[in-house]
Amino acid sequence: MRFVFFTNTPAHVHLYKHAVDRLERGGHDVLVLGRDYGCTVALLDRYDLPYRLYGSCGTTKGSLFRNLPRHYARIAPAVRSFDPDVIFGVGAYAAHAGLVGRAPAVLILDSEPTSLDHAVSRPFAAAFLTPHAFGKDLGENHYQFRGFCETAYLHPDAYRPNPAIREDLGLADDEAFVLLRFNAFGSHHDVGQSGFTPDQRRQLVETFADHATVFVSDEGGTLDLDSLPAREFDIHPALLHDALSAARLVVTDTQTVCTEAALLGTPVVRSNSFVGDEDMGNFTELERRGLVVNTPDFEEVVSTGVGVLLDDSIGDAWRRRRDEYVGGLVDLTEVIVAVAEAGGETAVPGLERWRRGTERATPDRSTPLTDKST
User: Fold this and answer.
1) Is 150 a residue whose pLDDT tops 90?
2) pTM reported for the whole predicted model
3) How far apart are alpha carbons 322 and 180 in whole angstroms?
4) Of 48, 86, 188, 200, which has the highest C-beta tally within 10 A?
């Protein structure tokens, strides 16, 4: 059989990398259509995926829309010539490629606020696959799996931490470190959204540097680290998950890195304008499980982070909660491969029809994030 996978961002490379490998080893033909965005190409090369670039995109809000015509002009002939049996992706590119290639398009996504993408994809998608915590109904072809998009590569069956990561980062064996990840807010779904201000970013660095080594991963590249007690996170992006796993604390205004840290059992604080009553299901579910602190209050970000750095037991408790929860989630790669080999059909183990409210199976976390909360 023949399959096309779209990797528009670095997260999409991780989402599909193991499925691509499994399908190729199973004798299938696979084409990965990638976009040169952030470190996407570096990851495609690192994992030796059979990719072809359809275009590029910057981190500014206007870059995507300026490049759309050229992207589609390259995607359409590539899909037609490859003649896939099933197409996998996250949004409109894959859905519209399904129309061009006359193949079912299976979209795997986890963000409720991307309404424009949902609207332009829905008429052309054969199926939407979302986490069990996803809180928006996408129609009769909407299915859910018990997990997160990140369980395609961070499920315990799929991921083992790299013991050499501290050496890669230039750290002593017992040296505590904090990873700060800042978003560029340049995607179309980030319009009108925001995270930490420049002053808040500097305050985070200066405060946490009193307690641990601080690494900064700044997607927009706007923070001047020369004047701050921090180091740039400048090792290969494929090592990010190893760093997240080894960190004492992660603080971020991004989405994916928050979920990744939570699934690795690392204390993580997330703060951006998405946080609130209408927050995405992923994050409300992970907070209920005691694996994420979501807050729009900057002072709470600082106090929670300092509390984690001053109390070793918090990290131990966090990991115990993670072990109890993540072991019951599906390895999403198994689901993707099953759907692919079934020709896009969704009657496979690990999938069921989406139904509202499945993410509320457990009560809210109501105890402090200490060893007593496990």
Assistant:
1) yes
2) 0.91
3) 21
4) 86
| Of 358, 310, 161, the residue nearest 244 (C-alpha) | 161
Residue range 165-326, CATH number: 3.40.50.2000
pLDDT tens per residue across span 10-23: 999 999 999 999 99
Query: Would you place residue 273 in the very low, low, confident or very high pLDDT band (cuts 50, 70, 90)?
Result: confident
Distance between CA atoms of 65 and 162, rounded to whole angstroms? 38
**Boundaries of every domain in the chain:** 2-155+330-356, 165-326
Burial of 313 (0-12, 13-18, 19+ CB in 10 A): exposed
For residue 135, which phi and psi values (nearest 5 degrees)?
-105, 15
CATH number of this structure's domain 2-155+330-356: 3.40.50.2000
How far apart CA 199 and CA 168 sit, in angstroms, is: 30
Three-state secondary structure call for residue 153: coil
pLDDT, mean over the chain: 91
What's the pLDDT score for residue 220?
72
End-to-end CA distance of the chain: 47
307: its two tokens: 């509390």
Q: Tens digits of per-residue pLDDT, 59-94? A: 666 676 788 899 999 999 999 999 999 999 999 999
CB 79 within 8 A of CB 94: no
Same fold, 2-155+330-356 and 165-326: yes
CA 158 to the chain's CA centroid: 15
Count other Cβ atoms within 10 Å, centred on residue 120: 13
Closest CA to 189 of 293, 66, 274: 274
The secondary structure of residue 39, as a DSSP letter, is T
CA 52 to chain centre: 22
Residues in the chain: 374
Transcribe 166-220 into DSSP letters: HHHHT--TT--EEEEEE----SGGGTT-----HHHHHHHHHHHTTTSEEEEEETT
- Angle (CA) 187 188 191, round 5°: 95
Residues in contact with 264: Cβ distance below 8 Å, sequence separation at least 6, in sequence order: 154, 159, 161, 241, 244, 245, 322
